[in-house]
Amino acid sequence: MSIVAYFLIQTLRETFYQNAFDKNYEFISLEEDGIVDTVQVFHGVKINTFVQNEEKPSAIILELNDEKEAKLKGHKVNPAIEGMQAYSAAVSYKRMKNIESGKEQFIVGLQTSPEKEDGSEATYTTYSINENGIVKKSHFTTETKSKLETQWIRGISEETHGYYTDLPYQDGAKGSLLFLSLIGVLLIISGFWVSKSIIAQQKEAAA
Questions:
Q1: CA 207 to CA 201: how far, in whole Å?
Q2: DSSP H helices in the chain
Q3: Along the 207 residues of the chain, how does pLDDT read in single tens digits?
Q4: Which of 25, 48, 106, 184 would be 129's cystine partner, CB 3.0–4.6 Å?
Q5: Quick check: 140 and 149 in contact, CB under 8 A?
Q6: pTM of the predicted structure, to 2 decimals
């Protein structure tokens, strides 16, 4: 029963959290003709992602204002795809606006170590650029991420990570919740029936 309640409560918390975020922030599309260009300029800061083929294996390079900021290895890149879609397994660009204040940020999200088959955590780095052109860098994992960082890394890997739980974003999540809820109801009914039986037996023994 405790396990059922835990997943249900975490899912409700995730739903309320996501709804609150969507009311306070919006993401502005960077697509032009269906493509997000690898070179972007946000309030004087130039962002560029490309592949350095001189190395074997090749590496993904992130540059800020033409200065090398990060080098990523071990990620697959599809050269046949134009724009940032080719780097979707490792890098994402996002332009985010605070609806209340109207202020915008440009976010570059990197998965700095690919998730491994042994289940070890992937690590992430984000660069947030504000309207003054100031860049802030942060490092985290799926366990140490903040609420905003949760949003910033979405779209990098095939899986969508939540802040409280990943369950609502997984395939078959609704069926799982329904199944867990059904188990919870059955456990409550069983517990009530057992308690009622015990009380009846105690009354008979007392008589």
A1: 10
A2: 2-24, 147-152, 173-206
A3: 566 677 778 888 999 999 999 999 999 999 998 999 999 999 999 999 999 876 667 799 999 999 999 999 888 888 789 999 999 989 999 999 999 999 999 999 999 987 665 567 889 999 999 999 999 999 999 899 999 999 999 888 777 889 999 888 876 555 555 666 676 666 667 666 666 667 666 666 665
A4: 106
A5: yes
A6: 0.80
User: Cα separation of 50 and 162, whole Å?
Assistant: 29
Cα(11)–Cα(184) distance, rounded to whole angstroms? 15
Q: Which two tokens stand for residue 87?
A: 């780097």
Amino acid sitting at position 104 = E
Dihedral of alpha carbons 106, 135, 72, 52, sign:
positive
Beta strands in 53-116 (DSSP E): 59-64, 67-72, 91-98, 104-113
Strands 35-36 and 39-42: unpaired
Q: Which two tokens stand for residue 170?
A: 């997984």
Tokens representing 29 are 């599309």
